[in-house]
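Figure 2 data, in text form.
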Amino acid sequence: MRHFPSVASALLIAACAACSAPSGKATAQENADKGEDAITAAVAAPSRTPANTARDRYRHPAETLAFFGVKPGGTVVELWPGGGWYTEILAPLTRTGGGTLYAAAPAGRLKTIEGWQAGKPDVYGAVKLAEFPHEDGTKVPDGSADVVLTFRNVHNWRFDGSDNTAEAFRQIYAMLKPGGILGVVDHRLPEAMDSALEEKSGYMKRSSIVGFAEAAGFKLAGESEVNANPKDTHDYPGGVWTLPPTLSQKDEGREKYLAIGESDRMTLKFVKPVS
């Protein structure tokens, strides 16, 4: 006669097996936690300048980079870093995590990063420089990037009647691996406002950016309100530069604009499909 374990015994065996078996979900969560811890440490890096850390309350770098899925060991591309606000975070993040950081901009537009590389090679020496949009200089290799990031730049590609946006998104798509992420933060123009403002105000409509990205082959994977600012009325005499940190109107209305803070921004995450 065959003997079967009691129901209680079977449940006990199953419970023990579940306790001892590795959990894929737990491992994924642990990896996510490690990534967010690394981002938090990079945001707190002593190499950052006080003027830049003062803007964290408007730009929410830790939450933004975590939302985009930036990993310290990945290949990250920062487009048009300008004064290097995010580079100050991304360089130590990728350096300590064994990853790779590209700073990519038009020829001659990476002087700040080049200066940092000369002055602080321990922090910025590993940053790779590339041309974007690529013409005949060094480019980010096709299919090499895990994440491409652009902060407050898409309006520049659309600006003043010269629309280079479609080509920019095409090149971004090419540099990403299948499954790679494009993270976009930009000044948000309400959908009900005149689209012509995109050419001069510095604001962009969400529908415009989504349209450019989808035309290049991207799929919208998520969006966050972490960089939203409901105080922003989007209708200033000097466009978005009326607000801090630029304060283009100088002393005129200064206290009013400081009270509003930095612009209302959309935070959009796109994915390059695997197939």
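Caption note: The mean pLDDT is 90.
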